[in-house]
Design a protein that fits this description.
The structure is a single chain. The chain is mainly alpha-helical. It contains six helices and two strands. A two-stranded antiparallel sheet has the order 1-2. It starts with a helix and ends with a strand.
Length: 148
């Protein structure tokens, strides 16, 4: 997952390199390379390029601020949602840090580890700083859903 503009720029450059490598592979005759190996190399490059493009598209969608609702299915997904919400809000890591009275490096660490070292109190502060409305749902016995 791309978490900031620097990572976005690096991913974009990597994507372009994979595109060039794939184009070169298509133009290069298989020669002494076994066809199965040639096909495997091509598929590996295509797969990696698809992954990079997907990450770039996800970041672009978040930055466009078209996504109004971000959902998670479990509490374990909350850290990724916080990162996505920051991006969707158009905030840099530095801006979020400023809202929390922290240094940018602390937000970078939190996001690099997906908030593994953050206490629940800090996560609540991040939620408020991002202006998120949180609604939790649980499955109640009998299969009906209720909001908490």
């Amino acid at each position: 997952m791309i978490k900031n503009e620097r990572q976005y720029a690096i991913t974009k450059v990597q994507s372009e390199k994979f595109e060039r490598a794939l184009a070169e592979l298509r133009q290069r005759p298989a020669g002494n390379v076994h066809p199965v190996l040639h096909k495997a190399e091509t598929e590996a490059l295509r797969s990696q390029l698809a992954d990079l493009r997907s990450e770039l598209e996800q970041y672009d969608r978040l930055r466009s601020r078209r996504r109004r609702v971000l959902r998670v299915k479990s509490f374990d997904e909350l850290p990724r949602l916080l990162i996505q919400a920051r991006i969707a809000a158009g905030l840099s890591q530095k801006q979020l840090a400023g809202r929390l009275g922290l240094k940018e490096q602390q937000i970078q660490r939190y996001e690099a580890t997906e908030y593994a070292s953050a206490k629940l109190e800090r996560i609540e502060q991040v939620v408020r700083a991002l202006g998120l409305a949180v609604r939790m749902e649980s499955v109640v016995s009998g299969g009906s859903r209720g909001a908490l």
